[in-house]
Write a structure and sequence with these properties.
The structure holds 2 protein chains of 2 kinds.
Chain A: H1 4-15, H2 21-33, H3 35-52, H4 61-77
Helix pairs in contact in A: 1-2, 2-3
Chain B: H1 13-21, H2 25-47, H3 50-66, H4 77-96, H5 126-129, H6 132-144, H7 148-159, H8 164-171, H9 175-197, H10 201-206
The chains are: A mainly alpha, B mainly alpha.
Chain lengths: 84, 208
């Protein structure tokens, strides 16, 4: 049985779902017997999920316009791959 | 009858890169449009300054255009662009805080560090409890409070969804260093979000 400290060190691997079956089982055994670590596992998993679900916002219109303008100038000045 | 080529209108990254390298400006512009929002978000979080983030955005794509010939195709084009953006962002950080060294390699305590303090389940689904705008503000504030060494790793791995190997390569870190920083970043964010999202038993009782 993992200690709570060992559980924490295995948590990343467990959450990324590329953990060896042995690691998965030892983490699951631990969290089923340790309510605090179950909560830590659950809330860490939700933390990762909530960030992964956030789409980037559209660029502010003027930021995009200035980007396209700078790019247009660059492209007019020379082809890709040429040095300044 | 099926075709092996991509349906028209859906251009794969590598096709666009090949076209851009052959001098097709529209293909490069398409790549820019595809990634500019993510690059701007990344630069905003690293520099924490919107003027710097805009400079980074422009510099990144201008450099990518200039050096397109150097892109070997050993990595995804996006990863290559992220590497330019991270370097440009860190240069901005260093310039702005010239009086103190800012490095993603700054030392940090790994022992005797309390990784978990707040242990509480979350109340329902935060995505239901808060508006999209509120949630975005909560998440951004939490990420921005991380130290740069953790923040950058978290952004690349969990926000931009680069692999551990890609993140290590972009930041010139070892794979164990990426894993260690990611764990600490995730636990610190968990801590901060739990303070906002936890079930407030006392508050519920107050309404009874």
């Amino acid at each position: 049985m993992l200690t709570c400290k060992e559980f924490l060190e295995s948590l990343n691997e467990y959450l990324d779902e590329n953990a060896a079956a042995e690691v998965r089982k030892s983490v699951e055994d631990h969290i089923h017997n340790c309510p605090n670590c179950w909560v830590v596992h659950d809330t860490t998993k939700k933390t990762v999920q909530i960030y992964r679900g956030v789409e980037p916002q559209a660029l502010p219109e003027e930021v995009n316009a200035r980007l396209m303008e700078a790019l247009g100038k660059k492209m007019a000045a020379g082809g890709a791959g040429e040095t300044d | 009858m099926s075709s092996l080529s991509a349906p028209s209108g859906v251009n794969h990254e590598e096709d666009l890169v090949a076209q851009a390298r052959a001098g097709d400006a529209a293909a490069f512009t398409e790549l820019v449009s595809r990634y500019s929002r993510k690059i701007f978000r990344l630069a905003s979080h690293i520099t924490q300054n919107s003027a710097d983030a805009e400079d980074v955005l422009q510099e990144t794509f201008l450099k990518a255009y200039t050096h397109l010939g150097d892109f070997q195709g050993n990595s995804r084009f996006y990863t290559w662009v992220v590497r330019i953006a991270v370097n440009e962002s860190l240069m901005k950080l260093r310039k702005r805080r010239a009086d103190r060294t800012v490095s993603i390699d700054e030392p940090f305590p790994t022992e005797d560090e309390e990784l978990v303090r707040e242990i509480a389940v979350w109340e329902g689904d935060p995505e239901q409890r808060f508006t999209a705008g509120q949630l975005r503000a909560i998440l951004d504030e939490a990420v921005d409070s991380l130290r740069p060494a953790f923040r950058t790793v978290f952004l690349l791995r969990d926000v931009d969804e680069l692999s551990t190997e890609e993140t290590a390569s972009v930041l010139d870190l070892s794979i164990p260093a990426v894993k260690s920083r990611l764990l600490r970043a995730r636990l610190q964010l968990r801590e901060k979000l739990t303070r906002v999202f936890k079930r407030k038993g006392d508050d519920v009782l107050a309404y009874l």
